[in-house]
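User: Assemble these into one structure.

Assistant: Restating your components, then the assembled model:
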Amino acid sequence: MTSLTARPSRAGAAVWRYLPRLVGAIIVLWGAATLAFLVLHLVPGDPVAIMLGAQTQASDEVKARIRTDLGLDEPPLVQYFGYLGRILHLDFGTSYRLQQPVVDVIGAQLPSTLALAGCAMVIAILIALAIATTARGRVSRAIASTLELLVISSPSFWTGLLLLTVFSFRLHWFPVSGGNGFASLVLPAITLALPIAGILSQLLRHGLDTANAQPFVASVVARGLGPVQLLGRHTLRHASLPATTFAAYIIGSLLGGAVIVEQLFGRPGIGRVALDAITNRDLPVVMALVFLAAAVFVVVNLLVDALYPILDPRLRTAR
Amino acid sequence: MSILQSQSELVDAPRRRRMPPVAAIIAGVVLLVLIAAAFLPGLFTPLDPLATDTHAHGQAPSGTHLFGTDRLGRDVYTRVVYGASISLAFGFAATVIAVVVGTVIGVASGLAPRWVDNIVQRVLEILLALPELLVALVVVAILGAGVVNLVIAITIAAIPAYARIVRASTLQVRQAAFVEAAVALGQRRGAIIVRHVLPNVVGPLLVLATIGIGTAIISGSGLSFLGLGPATPSPEWGLSLSDGRDSLATAWWVAVFPGLAITATVISTTVVGRWLQSRFEGRGA
């Protein structure tokens, strides 16, 4: 390796490697913002009418004034660039129904969902690691494979209900609903984690199989490392690469699953905000959430790209 | 479905030469029974799924009411039987439309100029990287709730996987000698697509679609559970489950059996699909 001569250009190479991805990420966000704008302005239904509700007494004059205040009288292109500009300042407008800034509505509920998703992620990783590292024999593999099929095929609103029936209504270990304290977090987090654990476990098991077939395993064993060190230092690292590729899918599962799990367990959170906004056609909130989902997707993918070389040293040399 | 089917290939292909036939047979029988229930629900139950009976509300499963009754005295077993037609219809309709639209997009993208193909592929990649439920939720968020919009949503969520595989096969077939021969013989573009490209694309697509039905059913019942699909007296499984949530403390059976039906359907389609896949791969390539 000509490390001495390669070093000064490494930062430059990294920039060139990541620049196209950064541009791609910005295009995705721009696309999401444009979609949001189109939906807000093309979806049938007058925003002012939705804001005021069905049984409004407001006169046409008042409606006209609100239209002017919202800038709905401007030409579409002016509105479009105004909208993009406001998104850059994280201003997503005012909720039709709650009459609060959308950012405040979402911001207030975000911590609850983050706690839920974070716990679920940790649980899913622990379950997947436990299954993938223990199910190495013929019988245990078959059991693991069946369990994975079962949890992936069971809709989360059903597994959640089963957990509620057994642990809340029969055993009274956990509260039935609500969002206060750690006890109310356990069942929702497990419900959200199970299908993800199934997917992760499949990916990890396959990754470990592939890693164990590599020649370096023989040399590691020949150097006298035990099975635990082999797993911890070498094969698990290999096995986590394919799982990392699915990071966006997994985060997406957490977001989509949160909508169902929060509804099922009566927990506050952005999943509930999303469902309320969809049912009530509160479009500014809906489109801000769509934009948020796009932003999460983009950030996760950029992080994954940055993470690859850390996990796999072979990727550190510029292509 | 993208992840389910790709994973089944990854994990099981090297180990398992083919699915134990017993599992595939059981899954096939379950599917046949479900399809029969969807078309001829009267064959399975003499009762009306909407008939209420104030004398028999909240009864536990027994000889007269196999799955018990809900708080309005409706027979849960009957409702599960009648729900099959709705939930399966969502899954089948969405999958069939998605296969057709996905095929059109895939073939068109595979034959289109490079820059059009590139744009289409980038959009498909983004959609494919997301779970179907999330994509369907976003579509419902934009279109609004309702049965038609629900089917549109799960269809759109399913399209990318089919479009991708059709486009890949199209690119392969495009290079094949028999297509060159057809071009040389002066056959029209449309005729070549229908006679030569499509038949080579259909096989893997149908295997994928079998597994896809299960995923579409999960998405559809999930949206119904959230109240974004059919309205309340409907015996649709996701909706029944959401109704049953309120009486979970006293009557677990109201919610548990519709959920069991969903899970059994999804597992069956997955097992049958994987078995078809192993058969198909064993034969081809």
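Chain B touches chain A through 48 residues (CB under 8 Å).
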